[in-house]
Amino acid sequence: MKGNTILLLSICLILASCGKRSNEVLIETESFDEKGGWVVDPQFVEQMGSPYLLAHGLGSPVKNAKTTINLPSKGKYNIWVRTKNWADGQWEAPGRFRLLVNGEEMEEILGSGEEKWRWQYAGRISIKETPVIIELKDLTGFEGRCDAVFLSQAKKEPPETSDELSSWRKAQFGETEIPVRSEEFDLIVVGGGIAGCAASIAAAERGMKVALIHDRPVLGGNASSEIRVHTEGITWKSERILSMLNTVWWPNGSPDATQDDKKRLDNIIRYENIKVLLNWRAYNANSHSGYVTSVDARHTSTGETMRFSAPLFIDCTGDGWIGYWAGAEYMYGREDSLTYKENWDKYKELWSPVTADSKIMGSSVLWRTFDSGTPSVFPDVPWAMDVVGEYSATSGTWKWEFSRNDLHQVDDAEYIRDHMFKAIYGSFSNAKKKSENTNLALEWVSYLIGKRESRRLKGDYIYTFNDERNMVEFPDAVVMEKRNIDVHYQQIEADSSQPDFLSEALYYQVDHYYIPYRSLYSVNINNLLFAGRCFSSSHVGLGGPRVMNTTGQMGVAVGYAASLCKKYSTNPRGIYEDHINELKELINNTDSVKNSF
User: Fold this and answer.
1) Is the C-alpha dihedral spanning 485, 490, 494, 498 positive or negative?
2) Where are the domains of the chain?
3) pLDDT class for 248, splitting at 50, 70, 90?
4) Do domains 21-161 and 183-334+453-486+510-592 have the same CATH topology?
5) How far apart are CA 50 and CA 43, in angstroms?
6) Tens digits of per-residue pLDDT, 349-404?
7) Which residues contact 415 (CB under 8 A, 6 or more apart)?
8) Contact 149/113 with Cβ under 8 angstroms?
């Protein structure tokens, strides 16, 4: 018996040594107690593994981020910081910062080195008392970034590869594959842009219990105060619902976007059957036999995970993440000019290439300046000049857009955003050299990219430019738009002397066009609807209906469709086959529906 006891204790010790060591601590910076002037950036979780803190100071160092941790013991600790030099070259890195431990500033300059996410060794320090205060001290105000801080008494660098790093993170925090917490709803809507908000309201007004999962602190997506793209398009039959989400038109980049943030949230939380989950980012969609069963999401600051289950799901993520994770068929890039000729043999898909490729519309970062009333100084930005050359500007409109054939608008999104940072700071630096701009200062620069196009989920019908041009009146039409069709391309393609971050638009004028319901649910995932720029369309077909009032109409349509799925115990395709007239009747009567609160 004694021998068995010793053996059991030995096994326990071995197993314990395989997990998290007792003399090491990992801190995810998004969970810091005080963010100071740093902001939580969750845009690139799928590419680099985690949200991170960003020192978005427009060229002025931001206030320290700070947190307090408990270490298992006193003694000497090695410290690593996961960071990235986002503009490597023959200059000082733009995003430099330092680490402070109990007020002691460590010597190593962080945010330098290679242009990739990596663990940078910050040094070794003697801890004489605990708890310990950790601080991030920004040195530049130019987009320094910090993902995590790791303290260990052993000098063993944490893993670098994404798979190893992901497993190691989970082991550090004791995270299980299946979230411990779970909730059930009638409908899960992922993505709190205009489409997602409209879908949630429409479904809730029909009595559904809805979860609206959104990865930012404010609703609105591209229309929010964080990105500030004004809404375009008509509201058609959905004016009452869409008026709860937007006010009067304001120009791109305007601070007036802030009032709409409050309006959206106030109106949506009035619905007792909508649970709004801000700062929760979906990271997985579980599926079985052609059905989504649940969505897993993580809080962008605390790291807490939850599982959300429902019979029906609506993907309003823009990038089509729920469909992508669930195995939905999707499209990316430009189709060749003959792919969608269908019934119009004499036409080709306008602006399409002879051979299909991966080129799509790009992403924008808007920005504004103001007259400060007194002379203001802007730092030199040598790390931006290779991008801008001699180009100068004092604001950024929709034309500030970046797309390149070798870049993927999802996989390379952080590089695209950082390229736009160089374009903005470099162009403004050039403008500041002109005497008329002495008093000009940066007022606002978005750090979130406004995407126009990425994955397009495939439905029972793929909507095309020819449908728009011919103004096809589909029997299942649920959206109508009058906006002209426009598809963007980079100016540099037409004129090599132009910067690569400016775009132009190709326009085609049309009176009106309709979108069929069959383009708003998945061809192969039986309980998945979608609304927004990830709806089922060709590349050129997306050119007209990609704007937010149109996608809001889509949201209303799929919200009502979900309610009919519940009413008749059917799936989204079943609504088209057996109940499309009832869906159209709901849409036609949207503005006469009385709010249920």
Assistant:
1) positive
2) 21-161, 183-334+453-486+510-592, 363-451
3) confident
4) no
5) 9
6) 788 888 899 999 999 999 999 999 999 999 999 999 999 999 999 999 999 999 98
7) 407
8) no
Distance CA 424, CA 447 (A): 11
Structure tokens at 443: 């007022």
483 secondary structure, DSSP code? P
Could you tell me which residue, 595 or 334, shows the higher pLDDT? 334
Mean pLDDT of the chain: 92
Q: Is the dihedral of CA 298, 53, 214, 523 positive or negative?
A: negative
105: buried, middle or exposed (CB in 10 Å: 19+, 13-18, 0-12)? Answer: exposed
On the question of pLDDT at 14 being above 50, the answer is no
H or E segment at 584? Answer: helix 580-588
Distance of CA 256 to the CA centre of its chain: 22
| 8 A C-beta contact, residue 558 and residue 529 | yes
Cβ-proximal residues to 293 (8 Å cutoff; 6+ apart), any chain: 286, 287, 309
| 3-class SS of residue 265 | helix
Half-sphere exposure of 234 (CA within 13 A, CB side): 12
Per DSSP, the residues of 296-340 read: EEEETTT--EEEEE-SEEEE-SSS-HHHHHHT--EE-SBPPTTTT
Parallel, antiparallel, or unpaired for β 330-331 and 456-457? Answer: antiparallel
Q: How far, CA to CA in Å, does 407 sit from each of 29, 319, 332, 415, 416?
A: 28, 15, 12, 9, 8
Rounded to whole angstroms, what are the CA distances from 62 to 95, 112, 141?
Answer: 11, 18, 6
Residue 231 three-state SS: coil
Supply angle C-alpha 181, 185, 187, rounded to 5: 130
CATH of 21-161, one of 2.60.120.260, 2.30.29.50, 2.60.40.10, 3.40.50.300: 2.60.120.260
Exposed, middle or buried by CB within 10 Å (0-12, 13-18, 19+), for 513? Answer: buried
What is the CATH T-level fold of the domain 183-334+453-486+510-592, as seen in this structure?
FAD/NAD(P)-binding domain (3.50.50)
Query: Distances in Å between the alpha carbon of 383 and those of 71, 93, 423, 426?
Result: 39, 8, 10, 8
pLDDT at 11: 36
- Alpha-carbon distance 535 to 64, whole Å? 42
- Local confidence band at 22 (pLDDT 50, 70, 90 cut-offs): low
Mean pLDDT score, 128-133: 92
Angle formed at CA 547 by CA 541 and CA 552, multiple of 5 degrees: 110
306-322 pLDDT, tens digit each: 999 999 999 999 999 99
Quote the CA–CA distance of 365 and 403 in Å, as a whole number. 12
Alpha carbons within 13 angstroms on the beta-carbon side of residue 288 total 5
pTM of the predicted model as reported, rounded to 2 decimal places: 0.94
Q: Are 536 and 459 in contact (CB under 8 A)?
A: yes
Q: Of 95-104, 226-235, 243-252, 270-279, which range is least confident?
A: 243-252
